[in-house]
Batch of 2 targets.
Target 1
Amino acid sequence: MMLRLTLALLSSLAGPALADQPVWDTFNGDLAASKFADVTSFTPETVGRLERAWEVHTGDVSDGSGELPETVWSATPLYANGTLYLGTPFYRIIALDPATGEEMWSYDTQSRLEALTQPALKNRGLAYWEGEDTGPCARRVYIGTMDATLHAVDADTGAPCEDFGQGGVVDVNQWNEVNARFPFSLLQPPTVVGDTLLVGWAGKDWEYSVAPPGNLLALDARTGELKWELGFIPEDLIPQTGTANIWTSMAADPELGLAYVPVSSPSPNYWGGNRTQDIPLATSVTAVDIETGEVAWSRQLVHHDIWDYDTPSAPVLVDIDRKGETVPALVQTTKQGFLFVLDRRTGEPVFPIEERPVPASDAQGEQASPTQPFVDLPPPTVDNSAMPAVWGLADFLSGGQCSRERGTYRYEGPFTPPSEQGTFMYPGTAGANNWGGAAVDDAQDILYVNSMRVVQVIQLIPREEYEEVDGGSGNEEGYYPQDGAPYGIRLTEWRTGLGLPCWEPPYGTFSAYDLRTGERLYEVPFGMSQQWGFYGLRAWGSPTLGGPVVTAGGVVFIGASMDARVRALDATTGRELWSDLVEAPAVAIPAVYTHEGVDYVVFVAGGNSILKPEVSDQVVAYRLPPE
Amino acid sequence: MPASYLSVFLPALVGTILAGIAYFAPFGVTGVEGTAGALLALVGAAAVTLGALLAMAPGVRGWLRGLLDALLFVGAALTALAAWFLMQVPVAIAMAVASVGLLLALMLRSGRRTA
């Protein structure tokens, strides 16, 4: 609560007060990444009456069957300046009337629509900044592109801000000077803290052993000039490895002057023989001084990461009332399913973290870490103490394929290293939790999070054999070369020939946690799986991508499921209160805003091939009917 | 007599139309458009419709009618089940009614024989 009040106060001091509150002017709703909407009209009693206020198709979509790569659209819309802003996977900005969805203006970056670093055209949205000046570009919207340009336009008109870089464009690739095997792809919008843009990037960490070393760039929001740069790979290791970059959103506490950055794994993803030395900032959550770029503290969440367990989302900042004192904390969701609750001033654990022995690697040149950090309280978002049992139905229908394979591949508990024989990876590379992160009600100290339970098989393929492989690469699945390593890889979901998962459901859940005690309040199956059109039972749940929003009225809004439904849940129980069918899985975090006195929730239904092949350009806003 | 198969034919025809809508609807309307499952339901409902039409033909007697009755019942029931898992409740209801309609037709026929 204190944090929310502080941020609100700072926000009001930073710029002119807006007539319509609350705004949703960052990817996560606010800099604390709380995904909390202070609206009370959406309650368990009212959301059953939600109706579509408007629906828009941007036209920026590709299923990959034509000349363009497929699109993956996970952009949270922004509501600020009395306008709703969308970033599209064709790297356009579209400004909409928040009440009607009518287009006010659009801006086209003219970016190359090529999958330069990713298997698809991806966009996770926009950033918004407003200064104290008046006149053109006093308020700005930023969008990044696959080919590493960052564009700033006037939030009122869409005209480029001429004082930003060269005619409104900064070529971020100018800072891609080392191991520049691919461009920095700006798929996640910058995080705006005061007058600073914090910029991370995405790359191809499955492709090469030696890659651009991960860094965080701080740019001046007005000019685009570099204020400082922070690298995450030690200088002496840069010739051997790379990445450990920030491809997802960040959080910040302006009062402490710290930004909290989720750092990914070094390259290549599934073999670390080239980087057996310590890389302390890799796969970490790291606190960075916003003014200087100095590391205030860092906590590594996976040692010597060889599972692609990137820290996948901004940590949620929350002031926890614990044992009679208020602890300024952060909660970091992770791909491996642990919830790390840390004092955000120091990085020290609020709940214990224990180093435990984990299995050794038998891969050529590999030296897996002998221990990894484990957290028991709060309980992990999925039970990661062992992989799920073989699902009897799938095993029966596949003639015993699942149970045969269970004995074929290696699994010796969490953090079993990738191997030539094939290793079960649970949670899979897309993680128990991904970029959607968690939502928190700071007044109640309750955390809400969706998760997925997916088992994958990772197989290291010796180089000479890999060269013979004629395999394609997909999104979080397929063959990847890891050039420079003695192994390429093959990554697959553990399924039967008919496509049924070999492991027991549920495949996705939704949970709530009391952060004062660490206790899990509930865990319920979430969403429905779908195969060939057939829906699974509700108890089976669905893999989830995307995140929740919690409102002051006690309702959680979330898309995220394979069945292309958007839902409202009762925050107290996780019970589904309302749902609506959209065109593709709504893998973006929804935005909740109040415009001209009316509360809206808006979903982007862009789809993601990790869940199902269907993609869309649909945006749908809902409101309660007028009284 | 065979006209009692109208109680199968009519709901199956409705089921076919509804399954066709589910399969051919514009993207995002039914959640199953263009899927293999929806096509299966459409083919199943259409097959039951045609089977019911065939059953009304006067020349179908003896073991052939028995086989047709069995196929119609299995087809209608499985199509109803498939539609249920496709969340196409109207199709499921129509095909369930066709299944019940077939049982009614059999009972009517049996009753006439007894009389």
Target 2
Amino acid sequence: MQTLVNIAVLTSIYALIACGYVIVYRTSRVLSLAHGELMMLGAFGLWVTIALFDGMPLAAALAALLLAAVVGVVVYAALMRRMTGEAVLAAVLATIALGILLRGLAVLIWGPTERHPLAALGWDNPVFELPAGARISAIDASLVGAAVVCYAGLFAFLRFSPWGIRMRAAGQSPLLAAQRGISLHVIYALAWCLATLTGGTAGMLLALNTALDQTMVVIGLKAFPAALVGGLDSLAGAILGALIIAAAEVLIIQFVSPLLADVVPFIVLLAMLIVRPWGLFGTREELDRV
Amino acid sequence: MPQPHSSGYFRTDYADDWRLLQTRGQRGAAAVGLVLACVFPLVASAFLLDLANQVLIAVVGAVALMLLTGYAGQVSLGHAGLMAAGAFTTGILARETGAPFWIALPASGAVGALIGFLFGLPSLRLRGLYLAVSTLALHFIVIHAGQEYETRRGLSSGVVIDPPSLFGAELVDPRLWYAALFVCAGAAVLFALNLLRSRTGRAWRALHGREPVAEALGIPVAGAKVSAFVIASTLTAMSGSLFAYYRGFVSSEAFSLFLTIQYVAMIIIGGMGSILGAVLGAAFVTLFPYLIEMALAQLPGGASMSSLVFAVNYAAFGLVMILFLLFEPQGLVGIWHRLRNWFLLWPFRQRPLK
């Protein structure tokens, strides 16, 4: 039973991160390999706002979320906007370079020490008993909740709101979308904004759960196979991909060897690329377009 | 892209088209460069020699990646994994069997070829981004295998390798190392240049241009792709082996994803599709951290920054990479070509077609 809870928590972590990859990719066909770093930046944003809004934890959390969303817009406007029209590889490399830059800056500004935002907020992390003897901590539960809210919000946004429909149109055919008067730059900036918002949320909750330091980037990178296994252009796929990767990881740690934990997502990814490169729910023609 | 030549130079037969050094100027420059390279170890300090040796090792790896990505157009993010494969083959052979240099180096190349074949198989089905991701996944698996070896043998801090001996002399002196590495790097560059003007190299370039057209022209696409991976991986693994020997030490931590990114940065900063670019990029990226360190030391209050050198390096490296991608996608070679053309065509100006 505890295993199931662990899988659920890890799934929601991966799903929350993976949806950032998916949103950016399906809208602008750019694979953002700086997602782990942007996630870390979101968590550091929380650290900054805690210091700013001393004694008002809720205001701090809201301000941090706002900050994470603004970061996405800034990244698009300052960097990725100029990469439109370049080769796909150049855009991916730009995100990699951005990641390196952010990682260096994070150490320069905040130093390499580990931080504990939970203590700084003055919250504690109670553990709840679930039926059948399983336990889940409050932050873990809120991770699951955040993933559910985030995906429900994204599905509703993409299906019902005019901006979501525009975003889908831009993803399907940028040329036709632009012809119909949709401003691609605004849509792309919105996609980056949503990606850093969800990624930043994941980063903040992870930082609250354990601690805030550079290792968070690795988790961001491990969520990437989840997005790809499900299909890079499918949100529903990202949930299933996250479930597969998380289940494989938890079970292997429990029954085989904890040493394998970091490799498992990539082995699953490789198997998927050999059998069905476009992912479980991805569009097949995607492959020839890149 | 055809480059203008100085006036008075005309190609009169096909053999002229094939020459590696076409004009008197190029022959002269090559001769001067060779003489300078030979004189360098006699005058340089040990520190400078060490830098030069690192650059020479990087040149081998960068040339290999340039062949694969810059010419054959196959994106690979598994470069560090391949280097690790070469380095670990050398380390394991030298430690377990005491194999000498001249066995370990080709053996590393052979292992590299085998892994390159495996890396190349996904390329038959995948293109672009997906190919890059599959090589990335293979990178993690190779590194994991290396870590597994380290923990199984209880060598958690790495495998120590004795300095290799060549013609009866132990390679300890940095000058001897310089000579050996210069020969290796020169051989790699010559090999790449010769390969590129042969049938294989032309097939790779056609592949890069457009795959269906290459196939229509009668190029065996699958064979050309796999051959690109195998040849580039062999070279890469050998550079990994040289790296291991030079350090005298193999550890899986040295082959992180960051190393891959550094090599990719070398060919981007140097300039895609040019062997000269690979050499320039290798020199730039290898020397960059030392330049930053020197610059920091000059700054007021730089001494207090010394603990942060690593972070400054990281940030500056990312920044330089972004600047090159945004403002000079042709890389250092592009700058050099523009400079040269400006002098060649003076007083006229070349205006590139937009």
